[in-house]
Write a structure and sequence with these properties.
Blueprint lengths: L15 H11 L6 H4 L2 E3 L4 E7 L10 E7 L4 E2 L2 E2 L4 E12 L2 E4 L3 E4 L8 E14 L7 E2 L10 H7 L12
Antiparallel strand pairs: 1-2, 2-3, 3-9, 4-9, 5-10, 6-7, 6-8, 6-9
């Protein structure tokens, strides 16, 4: 899949490579959501930004996403190969039939499916923190994977290269 040319896709000024270089040189980096760039998912209108805590080249580095889901946006059921936490920053979201609101925190284990995710009437902005670089969404159930678009995310964002260890 080709990267969108939509202006809502904002190229990163601070790339994983430049962040790793600066971290190795100085030991810390100051950036912003704007400098990290943004990926816009044409299929759903989702806007997302990502960075890794520590060196972005290390599989063990935690991964942070700030994601905006437009009003009534629906994302199919999926899972992740690592533990994660999601914090509702603004708006509301229905997850697996339960409504969550600003300030709510959802904690999830690896390889445990959830969804669908449905944004409220006002949309929702969330912060998702993954335990490591094994964050890519894995479609489950009857969906076709189009609403999670893992392929586009992997084109744009740093993820672990190694195979995840499955949690039993």
């Amino acid at each position: 899949m080709e990267t969108s040319t939509d202006p809502r896709d904002k190229k990163a000024q601070d790339t994983p490579e430049s962040i790793a270089e600066e971290l190795n040189r100085r030991g810390h980096v100051v950036t912003s959501w704007e400098q990290l760039g943004q990926v816009w998912m044409e299929e759903t209108g989702i806007e997302t930004t990502q960075y890794r805590i520590g060196l972005p080249t290390e599989d063990s580095s935690p991964t942070v996403f700030k994601v905006y889901f437009p009003p009534n946006c629906r994302v199919e059921a999926h899972t992740h190969a690592c533990d994660y936490s999601e914090i509702i920053l603004q708006g509301s979201q229905k997850v697996s039939g339960k409504w969550l609101y600003e300030g709510d925190i959802r904690i999830g284990l690896a390889n445990r499916g959830y969804g669908p995710l449905i944004a409220g009437e006002e949309g929702v902005t969330v912060l998702v923190i993954f335990k490591n670089g094994h964050w890519p969404p894995v479609q489950i159930g009857a969906g076709d994977g189009s609403t999670i678009n893992a392929e586009k995310l992997l084109q744009e964002y740093s993820a672990a290269d190694s195979d995840p260890v499955s949690i039993q």
